[in-house]
Design goal:
By secondary structure, this protein is of the alpha/beta class. The chain is built from 14 helices and eleven strands. The protein has helices at about 5-10, 10-20, 40-45, 60-65, 85-90, 95-115, 120-130, 135-140, 155-165, 180-185, 195-200, 220-225, 245-250, 290-310; strands at about 45-50, 70-75, 90-95, 145-150, 170-175, 190, 205, 230-235, 255-260, 280, 315. The strands form two sheets. Strands 6-5-4-7-8-9-10 form a seven-stranded parallel β-sheet, sandwiched between helices. β1 (about 45-50), α4 (about 60-65) and β2 form a beta-alpha-beta unit. α2 packs parallel to α14 (about 290-310), α6 (about 95-115) crosses α9 (about 155-165) and α6 runs antiparallel to α14 (about 290-310). The protein starts with a helix and ends in a 9-residue tail after the last strand.
């Protein structure tokens, strides 16, 4: 991982725990598998504890790690560094994706409830008037009583969002091609087609994986299906939404949006999305940050401890599932 990531992820308590769980030197952080100074550590490594900034584990890289048996990722997605060579080698892989899903889901639920309450419109009115405003007029028909929320993707985060929405007085629709009506009923949601979800929801939140078939899942035609005044929330990947088409809808004022990810990941300075009153734009902060990083580090250490005790991983990553996960 990147050395700065190690410093953010692991405090003294977790570093001390790492030293107990594994025979390792926590001061050794590798971010380049071709670095000659890392060769000794890599050649003897049975396990890699990885994080953001880990280079790809290619066949060439794995040649430098003849004893490697497992990889534990102290973050969410492993797609940036786990390659086909890892599965060919028979490596086992685990990640802290479950721990990382929690803050993303929490951010999303906060955004859903704020959207229902029309917080962006209320803020803008209050900021413009700078005097007492008629709250009833500002909120209008908004509110969170009986609103319909559409969840796109029963991913780990999508399922956590559904769970966190249960105490609220909301109707939840789900689109996921891998979830049938029986599973949807178990989750407490209604399974519908994507276009039905988009047409029927007051708030649509995106939790689908980034795959070739999900690129611009929300294109110009699908965005046009959203009802006037609806809110689109994207905490998944920017590529799932056609940025140009969404920008046109937002500039018109027809829709609201909460965007923690965009395509490109950093929008050009001239993008109107920075300044539109109906857009909440944040710089990819929904995932684990601040004190949430410790939870992710300890989740990874839990898995490393299971490996050391000969137990199966609680949250294994399977190669065949990567084709439809984040």
């Amino acid at each position: 991982m990147d050395p700065s990531v190690r410093d953010a992820l692991f405090d003294q308590e977790s570093l001390a725990r790492l030293s107990v769980v594994a025979d390792t030197d926590p001061s050794v952080v590798v971010d380049d598998f071709t670095d000659p100074s890392a060769l000794s550590a890599l050649s003897g490594a049975e396990a890699l504890l990885t994080g953001w900034g880990c280079p790809p584990l290619t066949a060439e890289a794995l040649e430098r790690m003849p004893r490697l048996r497992t990889v534990v990722h102290a973050a969410g997605s492993v797609k940036q560094h786990i390659t086909g060579a890892c599965w060919e080698r028979g490596l086992t892989v685990a990640s802290a994706a479950g721990a990382n899903a929690r803050p993303v889901a929490e951010y999303t639920v906060a955004a859903i409830l704020f959207a229902g309450k029309r917080v962006l419109a209320a803020r803008e009115t209050y900021r413009r008037e700078r005097a007492r405003v008629n709250a009833i007029d500002v909120i209008g028909s908004g509110g969170n009583h009986g609103r319909t929320v559409g969840v796109v993707g029963a991913s780990r985060i999508g399922r956590r969002v559904i769970e966190l929405l249960r105490p609220h007085d909301l109707r939840v629709l789900l689109y996921d091609p891998y979830v049938d009506e029986v599973e949807a009923a178990r989750l407490g949601v209604v399974a519908v087609s994507l276009d039905t979800l988009v047409r029927s929801s007051d708030v649509v939140t995106v939790h689908a994986p980034e795959l070739p078939e999900t690129r611009h899942l929300f294109d110009r035609d699908r965005l046009a299906l959203l009802r006037d005044g609806a809110t689109l929330i994207n905490t998944a990947r920017g590529s799932l939404v056609d940025t140009a088409a969404l920008t046109d809808e937002l500039v018109s004022g027809r829709l609201d949006a909460v965007l923690d990810v965009t395509e490109p990941e950093v929008l050009p300075p001239a993008s109107p999305l920075y300044d539109l009153p109906n857009v909440l734009l944040t710089p990819h902060i929904a995932g684990s940050l601040g004190n949430e990083l410790a939870r992710m580090a300890h989740a990874a250490l839990d898995e490393l401890e299971r490996y050391g005790r000969g137990l199966p991983y609680a949250d294994p990553v399977r190669g065949e599932a990567l084709s439809r996960t984040a």
